[in-house]
């Protein structure tokens, strides 16, 4: 696309872009550089769902590998960003040139990207290694997808219904059964590997629980009267 061609040429000629990837000596480090670069640029341009863009960039450059040329990384970044923005309806033929220029300028003006260290996401500082590992999971085809949103909403409804029917509690076996059903849906519709599917299912479970908690009208919590959920979870998973 014209966006990818123009932005790729600009990125490849940027010394800061080249040096950032030149310092990455592992796949994890390459993905980390890509994630930070994508996050910085998305925030600078005010692009919605900055984490999804950062994850797409991280996944794209990781697939290129370690020690590739600046052109290879620039092409990977530009194609990934172009596809995501087009999918969001932000990029079209009329604004491709202007958007490519803005993207390349933002990337060049972004703070220096280091290989290691934590990353601030929505005000929270998270380990860079964790973000790199989860990059494929939180991408636009993973946790950020519309199908994942639908599963989270459905799971939240099921959890709320289970709590209501049991008098205000949620047992570990019930939660695991609901999570297992969601997991089966992820497995059949995802291109992620088994460990990434596990991560996505757990994150969807957390999202659903938070949705239920935030939708409830909780006045007080007495943890002293709550059963030992950790031990119940261990027992259930141990069979």
Automatic annotation (TrEMBL):
- Entries under Gene3D superfamilies matching the protein: Spidroin domain, C-terminal domain (1.10.10.1350), Spidroin, repetitive domain (1.10.274.60)
The region annotated as signal peptide is none
Source organism, top-level taxon: Eukaryota
Location of the Tubuliform egg casing silk strands structural domain: 1-148
Q: Which InterPro entries match?
A: RP1-2 (IPR021915), Spidroin_C_sf (IPR038542), Spidroin_repeat (IPR043070)
Q: What is this protein called?
A: Tubuliform spidroin 1 variant 1
């Amino acid at each position: 696309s014209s966006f990818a061609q123009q932005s790729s040429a600009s990125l490849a000629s940027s010394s800061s872009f080249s040096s950032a990837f030149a310092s990455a000596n592992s796949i994890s480090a390459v993905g980390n550089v890509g994630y930070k670069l994508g996050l910085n640029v998305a925030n600078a341009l005010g692009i919605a769902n900055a984490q999804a863009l950062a994850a797409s960039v991280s996944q794209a450059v990781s697939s290129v590998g370690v020690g590739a040329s600046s052109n290879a990384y620039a092409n990977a970044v530009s194609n990934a960003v172009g596809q995501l923005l087009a999918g969001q309806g932000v990029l079209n033929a009329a604004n491709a040139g202007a958007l490519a220029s803005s993207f390349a300028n933002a990337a060049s003006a972004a703070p220096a990207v280091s290989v290691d260290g934590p990353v601030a996401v929505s005000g929270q500082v998270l380990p860079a290694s964790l973000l790199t590992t989860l990059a494929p999971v939180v991408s636009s085809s993973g946790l950020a997808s519309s199908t994942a949103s639908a599963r989270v909403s459905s799971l939240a409804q099921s959890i709320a219904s289970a709590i209501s029917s049991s008098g205000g509690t949620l047992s570990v076996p019930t939660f695991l059964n609901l999570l297992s059903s969601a997991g089966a849906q992820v497995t059949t519709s995802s291109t992620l590997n088994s460990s990434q599917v596990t991560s996505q299912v757990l994150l969807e479970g957390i999202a659903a629980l938070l949705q239920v908690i935030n939708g409830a009208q909780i006045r007080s919590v007495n943890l002293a009267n709550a059963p030992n959920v950790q031990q119940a979870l261990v027992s259930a998973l141990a069979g």
